Each structure stands twice: as structure tokens, then as C-alpha cells.
Amino acid sequence: MHIRRKRGWELPEAAATPEALYLSRRDALGAGAALIASSLLARPAAAQRLSEIPDPSAGLYPAKRNDAYALDRAITPEARSSTVNNYYEFSYGKNVAPSMTRFMRRPWTVKIDGMVEKPFEIGIDDLLKKVTLEERLYRHRCVEAWSMAVPWTGFPMKDLVALANPTGSAKYIQMEAFLDPKVAPNQRDFRYPWPYVEGLTIAEARNELAFLVTGVYGKPAPGQFGAPLRIALPWKYGFKSLKGIVRFTFTDIQPVSFWEQVQGSEYGFWANVNPKVAHPRWSQASEEDITTGERRPTLLYNGYGDYVADLYKGLETKKIWY
After folding, report:
1. For residue 43, what pLDDT band results from cuts at 50, 70 and 90?
2. Residue 83 has pLDDT above 50, yes or no
3. Which string of DSSP letters, residue by residue, matches 245-258?
4. Given a cut of 90, is residue 51 above it in pLDDT?
5. Measured between alpha carbons, how far is 309 from 35 in angstroms, rounded to an integer?
6. Average pLDDT over residues 24-33
7. What is the dihedral angle through the alpha carbons of 75, 81, 84, 86, rounded to the nearest 10 degrees?
């Protein structure tokens, strides 16, 4: 008698693929491939939209404008000012936004430490609950001799100083930007001393013009403007306006800022605007409006001398312009 041994690879007839399904296999494979492709394509698109995730503070905007700060020129259109930004963490060019696809504004924590009554950390949205936002129209003057006029939204820096409650020995505030090379590709560039660091005297930080910015053009600030927290110091050159702030350290030692470390002969701690003091490589006597291309005379302290000149009395021997 012949005994048939079933091989391991054999299947019962009932398990065979039905003929109709077999004949339509290419259609099924095509649909599956399309589904996989669409899923893969969606992932980069989602990554590119990280910076566009709705800001939870959006309901705070637009804030009421403080009319005490008027302009002598038109507001720069957002379409222009949003493509002329210095943000070396992401790009060495001016159109920064395309390089910020991985940047996220939340979660975001700010640390307050150093010579304060009690160091603490606070989430940006909890910080916003402790202050009152307002809009201010400020001139912005870059050390590269171009200028714009921006409607910033934020709160006076003196309010943050009050929250920090520094000791009487504190004379300066060292401010530090975020550090995350996975998000900011140029932070892998060993030629620069990351993270970006800036500093002010306590008196400068308490001046009414010193402004911590959270929004622009009546809405939460996009990444290229320094979201979710940056500083605007309209009487100083723009490189003092630190973006992406995560830390405020109160100290009795004058901070050494980022550009001071990179090129101290050209960029110093004070960086007040003065048309009569030329940058070592170009004149500061005039500036170019980034919208019109018009050149206009540069104003001492960028036109804000009535607010800040008294801060620098007795410092004539200091290099308060660079």
C-alpha cells in the first residue's frame, strides 16, 4: 500500500487564495503601496508643520497697543520683516523660517536663578498668566546697517525682574537661549560658543523700554522672530535682542555675550546705537529701510535717547557703543 506523506509546504485546498482575488492582486498591491506611500509622505509634511502647531496663548492676541511708543515711519510689512532675520542657530542667511521645520514653541520652560531670593522654573504659559501683554511699536536697528519697524507684543522686562526678586548684590542679568542641535542645525558648528548668551545691567533691564516679546503683528510670534520668548531693546543694535530665551541668571559679574566671545574687537557688551561710531568694517552713519531701500540718517540711541541716555552717565570711559 502506498502511503503519501504530506510535505511541510503543502496547504489544504480550502486554504488556497480564491481565483478572483488572485487575478486582482495587482490592484490590491497598488492600493497598499499607495496607502504606504501616502503615510510616508505625510510624515515629513507633519514634521514640516511642527512650527505651525497652534500656540496655546493665541487667545491673548491681539493685545492693546501702548500708544506711548510712537513711530516716525511706517510699520514694516510682515511679509518683509519675517524674511529678514538673523538667527544663526538655524541659518547664516536672512530667510530663516525654512530652516526651522523641527522647532517647537511648546513645551517651553524658563529658568530664573543666580542672585535671587528663590530660584525657580516656570512654563511660558504660566509666566504669561503673571503679566499683562501689550503691543508696542518699536524701531529695530541692525548693526549691519539695515532697519525695520515692528509691532511687538509682550511685557516690560521690569515685570520679570520683579518676579525674580533679585538680591541687592545683583548687578547684571545673563540671558541664555535654548540649546538643542537636533532642532537647530547650526548649533553643531563648533566655531561658535553655543548657546547664544546676552547680558544687561539690572538698570537696563528695569528701563521702561526693555521689552520681553511673545508676539508680533497681533499674534503669537513665529519661530524666526524668536518665539516663544525674546527680548526687544530698541536703543541697542539688534544682536543684543536674544531669541528663544530659556534662562535668566542674576549675577554681580558682567556677562560675556555671544558675539563678544566670537569677535570682541567688533561687538561688545553695551552695543548702543551711535551714528558717529563706525563699526570697524563699515559706517553706522545711515541705515537702509528693508522695505523701501531708502537710506536715512541713523539716530543716536536709535532715537530713544530721552528714555535711556541717563543710564550711561558716568560711563564715558566705557565702550558703550560696542
Report:
1. very low
2. yes
3. EEEEEEESS----H
4. no
5. 65
6. 45
7. 90
> What confidence category does residue 52 fall into, taking pLDDT thresholds of 50, 70 and 90?
low
Q: What's the distance, CA 174 to chain centroid? A: 17
**Order of strands across the sheet with 109-114?**
120-123, 109-114, 245-251, 172-177, 197-201
Q: From CA 89, how far away is CA 206, in angstroms rounded?
A: 28
- For residues 226 and 222, give the distance between their C-alpha atoms in angstroms, rounded to a whole number: 7
Distances (CA, A) of 63 to 124, 215, 216: 17, 9, 10
Among 87, 93, 154, 89, which residue's Cα sits nearest to residue 127? Answer: 154
Q: How far is CA 102 from the centre of its chain?
A: 13
> Taking CA 148 as the corner, what is the angle to CA 181 and CA 320, rounded to the nearest 5 degrees?
75
Indicate the residue type of 113: D
- Annotated domain spans of the chain: 56-312
- Proportion of the chain above pLDDT 90, given as a percent: 82
Task: Supply the Cα-derived Rg of the chain in whole angstroms.
Answer: 27
Answer yes or no: CATH 1.10.357.10 is held by domain 56-312. no
Residue (of 139, 143, 173, 174) closest to 267 by Cα position: 143
**CA nearest to 213, candidates 200, 234, 229:** 229
293 vs 228: CA distance, rounded Å: 30
CA distance 76 to 291: 7
